[in-house]
Amino acid sequence: QAFHSHRGDTCIKDSDCLSGGWEYCTDEGLCEHKDIFPMKELELWGMMVVFGALWLANMGGVGGGGMCVPIGILFFKLDAKNAIALSNFSIFLSSAIRYILNAPAPHPLKNGTGILVDLNLAVIMLPLIISGVSFGVMLNMIMPDIIIVICFVGLLSYLGYGVLKKGLILYKKETAAKEEKEKSKDIEMTK
Question: 73 in the Ramachandran plot: left (φ > 0), alpha (ψ -120 to 50) or beta?
């Protein structure tokens, strides 16, 4: 019961909803997630984890929304649908902040004449992004939480495997180049 939200289920009293004060029974007889305040200790820890995760993700140049879904489920006891919505908002917020910070920066390859943000790429990507978001919202509304979580875990596992594989290839390539450089340095020293 700790990870299964009863949000939207019918109830008579608060004990019919998620225990621990995470959900309460409304006057309409439906379970609803607790308000933001007062915050629980687990939520404070969750905020720190979200901040750290998004900070690291943005340093790497990605939105970090994939990390916010499990954090929302584990630390804030959200159901998958609300965790995904919160994740999408965090991606939007981090993208907007990155854009504001990078908009005035000059492009390093254009001798200070071009802007760092490539708006042409955004124009090309925007129709597909909007279509994907619309399709995703519809799927999120009609699919049960367990299917959403299974798809999310499968997608992140597949992407994580690809990143790990690419990282190992780059590591081997860089290690070989470093060893080659050291060998050539040793040969020059012996001459």
Answer: alpha
pLDDT in tens, 14-54: 989 988 889 999 999 999 999 999 999 999 999 999 999 99
Q: What angle do CA 68, 94, 127 make, to 5 degrees?
A: 95
Q: Is 90 in contact with 67 (CB distance < 8 Å)?
A: no
Q: Are 36 and 17 in contact (CB under 8 A)?
A: no
Structure token digits, residue 125: 């990507």
Angle at 94 between CA 127 and CA 83, to 5 degrees: 85
Contact yes or no for 37/43 (Cβ under 8 A): no
The pLDDT, as a whole number, for residue 41 is: 95
Give the total residue count for the chain.
191
Cα 96 to Cα 162: distance, rounded to the nearest angstrom: 27
CA 73 to chain CA mean position, Å: 13
pLDDT tens per residue across span 85-123: 899 898 888 888 888 988 888 888 888 778 888 888 889
Interatomic CA distance for residues 80 and 99, integer angstroms: 28
